Amino acid sequence: MGGADIERLIALLARLPGLGPRSARRAALALLRQPQARMLPLAQAMEQAARSVRTCSTCGNLDTRDPCAICTDPGRDRGVVCVVETVGDLWALERAGVHRGVYQVLGGTLSALAGTGPDDLNLAPLLARLEAGGVREVILALGATVEGAATTHWLQDRLVGFDVPVSRVGQGLPMGGALDVLDDGTLAAALTARKIHS
């Protein structure tokens, strides 16, 4: 087929989510056909992002600054914190445009199989915000998976002592569904139909 460099490119592309070996080959071919227009700008953008993008110490989002643009936006409602599993989930909710508060990215969910426990979740910044006061609602926007449900129940129990209403996204999320692959309308319906749990 090609040389070792092409095989390495295909192998690296195939590691990306959503790309298998065939899709990786097609992507590599598209890049290699126009290296000046496609490949070199992509390589430069990836190198720049690798140097400049960092994790927000407040919410766990990825941005070129810390705190991130969402956390420093004066137009955001800091009294409403939406808890999500991943940065992809945060980006999906931002794309839907239905949440004008701030976020907390957990970085995973509780999973005995994966060996993920409470100490592995990025929960400390949320607890610090709750202890500081000013939070009026915590929205639990975790996926409708077994792990997401377990984490939601654990968080509801963990947050009881803060005397802050805790809601969770409602209808619209299919069982087994991940937030970052749902369409904007489904996300909007799920966030709008959230329920308060006491």
Q: How is this structure best summarized?
A:
With 198 residues, this protein is α/β, with parallel strands linked by helices. It has eight helices and seven strands.
The Rg value, from CA coordinates, equals: 20 Å
Give a quick account of the main beta sheet: strands, pairing sense, barrel closure: 5 strands, mixed
Distance between the termini: 61 Å
Numbering strands along the chain, what is their spatial order in the largest sheet? 4-3-5-6-7
Find the CATH topology of the largest domain.
Dna Topoisomerase Vi A Subunit, Chain: A, domain 2
For the record, the count of structural domains works out to 2
Low-confidence stretches: none
What overall form do the CA principal axes indicate? elongated
Please name the CATH architecture of the largest domain: 3-Layer(aba) Sandwich
Family: Belongs to the RecR family.
Zinc finger (C4-type): 56-71
Pfam family, one: RecR_C
Domain Toprim: 79-174
Note down, in words, how this protein is organized:
- The chain has about 200 residues and is α/β, with parallel strands linked by helices.
- The chain has two domains: about 5-50, Helicase, Ruva Protein, domain 3 (Orthogonal Bundle), CATH 1.10.8; about 60-195, Dna Topoisomerase Vi A Subunit, Chain: A, domain 2 (3-Layer(aba) Sandwich), CATH 3.40.1360.10.
- About 45% of the residues lie in helices and about 15% in strands.
- The chain has helices spanning about 5-15, 20-35, 35-50, 70, 85-95, 125-130, 145-160, 185-190, and strands spanning about 55, 60-65, 75-85, 100-105, 135-140, 165-170, 195.
- A five-stranded mixed beta sheet has the order 4-3-5-6-7. Strands 1-2 form a two-stranded antiparallel ribbon.
- Strand 1 and strand 2 form a beta hairpin.
- Helix 1 packs across helix 2 (about 20-35) and helix 2 crosses helix 3 (about 35-50).
- May play a role in DNA repair. It seems to be involved in an RecBC-independent recombinational process of DNA repair. It may act with RecF and RecO.
